[in-house]
Amino acid sequence: MAAAEEKEAEAAVPPQKRFYRQRAHSNPLADHTLCYPSRPQDMDWASLFPSFFPPEAPPGTPPARVEFADVGCGYGGLLVALSELFPRSLALGLELRAKVAAFTRARIRALRAAQPGRFGNVACVRGNAMKHLPHFFLRGQLSKLFFLFPDPHFKRTKHKWRIISPAMLAEYGFVLRPGGLVYTVTDVPELHQWMLQHFGEHPLFEPVPPAQLAADPLLPLLPAVTEEGQRARRAGRPPSTAVFRRRPDPPAAAP
Fold first, then answer.
1. Is 187 known to be catalytic?
2. What is the pLDDT at residue 16?
3. What is residue 185's three-state secondary structure?
4. b (16+ CB within 10 A) / e for 65-85
5. What is the pLDDT of residue 35?
6. 3-state DSSP assignment of residue 245
């Protein structure tokens, strides 16, 4: 009993970021040692969201599904905010950097232990969205995708590393349901224009006019909810936000 109580107390201690620091840039095209399911049906979601997969659930109960994905979730600021705003919706953060992903997992464990019954709807895995996104999510599963302060990869030779590209937009269109939203934020004007251009040119997406987002509770939070956003604000670099909607699937071609 004492050992169990000690373990719970350790879990409730928030992690210290100084022990999890890692360089900001990571090559998404490199071969990383990552664990990912061969298909979404093989993912062990119950281990990430145990409170949403009770063992006493009646047979035939539809399993809970992740609806929000934060690509490059960093230290988990957005995940924590999503947990409080949407307590019944599951949100998954994908983070490529090993130490940063470990920090976010420890942060969520500490929040759950310190506040039982809360933060059970968010989780983080170490993953590479540029390679393995369809391994985690079914077609049309997600209703929201977030790209907050993605790496700008300034050099032209590294533009292929950018998380927003024509090839990647096709995959985002696959996992996002029609009507679903993509949120982007950056403090790099050139990258903002890059994302506007590529989303605007893709047949599966359309920009959402600001007037249609007036009641969206996320818009005021996104620029400063992450560590990168707070750093940009302190440096006086204004962030640019854009939201795009997944268009309906085009009608099937006649035989």
1. no
2. 73
3. strand
4. ebbbbbbbbbbbbbbbbbbee
5. 84
6. strand
CA proximity to 228, closest of 194, 190, 184, 165: 184
Dist CA 118 CA 243 (whole Å) = 28
The whole-model pTM stands at: 0.89
Tell me the Cα Rg of the chain.
19
Whether 217 contacts 138, CB under 8 Å: no
Whether residue 28 has pLDDT greater than 70:
no
Q: What tokens were used for 149? A: 């302060």
DSSP H helical ranges for 54-118: 77-85, 98-114
Token pair recorded at residue 231? 């750093």
Name the phi and psi angles at 195, rounded to 5: -70, -40
For 20, the 3-state DSSP assignment is coil
From residue 178, alpha-carbon distances to 35, 144, 207 in Å are: 29, 11, 14
Which residue in the list 31, 44, 151, 249 is annotated as catalytic?
151
Give the DSSP H or E segment for 240: strand 240-246
Structure tokens at 185: 């934020």
Residue 238, token pair as written in the block: 């204004």
